[in-house]
Structure formats: structure tokens, C-alpha cells
Amino acid sequence: MSVLENWDEWKNFLGDRLHHAQNEGMNDQVINNLAFEVGDYLAKQVDPKNTQERVLSDLWSVASDQEKQAIASMMVKLVQNNGSH
Questions:
Q1: 40 pLDDT exceeds 70?
Q2: Domain residues of the chain, as ranges?
Q3: Which InterPro entries match (predicted)?
Q4: DSSP per residue, 51-75
Q5: Of 13, 41, 47, 81, which has the highest C-beta tally within 10 A?
Q6: For residue 4, what are the CA distances in angstroms to 9, 49, 63, 74?
Q7: pLDDT grade for 2, boundaries at 50, 70 and 90
Q8: Are 36 and 80 in contact (CB under 8 A)?
Q9: Minimal CA–CA distance to 43: which of 66, 68, 18?
Q10: Looking at beta carbons, which pairs linking 2-11 to residues 24 or more positions away fall under 8 Å?
């Protein structure tokens, strides 16, 4: 099963990547910009594998760039307390 197929596993995966980036000294602006790029890539290239991803994909498809930045920022906040730390 792919990490994309289970919402909790996906959040833990993202949380681990976020903690790694923070431990390497990446600042919040860079992290949010990367989250935006990942979100844009996923929306264009990856079929949603669960209901939560479908909602995010649908929101992303109608959002302005500013709104997409906000969604990316909220995803970073969402996964901050996930992962193995």
C-alpha cells in the first residue's frame, strides 16, 4: 500500500519530512514554498488516493495562487505534530 492511500500515513510521512527540513535549518518561508510546489505537483500529476486528498485536489483546482499558498501553509501546520519526531 502506498503512503498516499492512507491519510494518517501520509500526514506522518509529511511530518517526518517537515521535521527533517527544520532540523537541517530550513526556515518557514522555504518550507511553505516547497509545500506549495509539492501541492502543485500532486494536483497536476497524482490521482487522489483517498477522500481527504480528493478534497484537497478539488480545493486546489479552484484556488488562486494566494489561496494555494494558504492551503500549503495549512498543510504544514497540520502535519507539524505528526511523524516519528
A1: yes
A2: 3-79
A3: DUF3243, Uncharacterised_YmfJ, YmfJ/YflH_sf
A4: HHHHHHHHHHHH--HHHHHHHHHHH
A5: 13
A6: 7, 6, 22, 18
A7: confident
A8: no
A9: 68
A10: 2/49, 4/46, 4/49, 4/50, 4/53, 5/49, 5/50, 6/50, 7/50, 7/51, 7/52, 7/53, 10/53, 11/78, 11/79, 11/82
**How much is the mean pLDDT over the chain?**
89
Length of the chain, in residues: 85
Are the beta carbons of 48 and 56 closer than 8 angstroms? yes
**3-79, which class in CATH?**
mainly alpha
Give the span between the Cα atoms of 52 and 55, in whole angstroms. Answer: 5
Q: Rounded to whole angstroms, how far apart are CA atoms 83 and 85?
A: 6
Owner of C-alpha cell 480545493: 59
